[in-house]
Specification:
3 helices; eight-stranded parallel beta sheet; globular; 114 residues
Length: 114
């Protein structure tokens, strides 16, 4: 049986509303955002291979941005799951980031300028 190739979605140099990407799903999968304005309100749950590089957030501080989630919780209603997603040079507006509590400190360490 042959595997179907992964179709990556790409957004470049545009405003992207998270609500528009999650009309029929609760996850964003295999997607690249480059130099985009990513607009909420939304809480993005980092689940698998999420890269955030040279991005800015309108959060007042890192405590307001990062939402730790206990590992024992298998579901987090209201979040948007991220799988194999990269954000490069994006501006996030009204966005929070959730991560399992063991990964939250690593995520927090990437935001030294908030």
């Amino acid at each position: 049986m042959t595997q179907r190739p992964v179709q990556r979605r790409e957004y470049r140099n545009q405003a992207v509303r998270i609500a528009d990407l999650t009309v029929t799903t609760v996850d964003i999968v295999d997607t690249v955002f480059d130099n985009c304005e990513v607009v909420g309100p939304a809480v993005l749950l980092t689940l698998e291979d999420v890269q955030i590089s040279r991005c800015n957030f309108d959060a007042p501080d890192v405590d307001a941005l990062i939402w730790p989630v206990p590992r024992r919780r298998t579901r987090v209603t209201g979040t948007v799951g991220l799988y194999r997603v990269s954000f490069t040079e994006c501006m996030f507006r009204r966005i929070g980031l959730a991560a399992h509590e063991d990964a939250a400190p690593l995520l927090r360490a990437t935001f030294t300028d908030l």
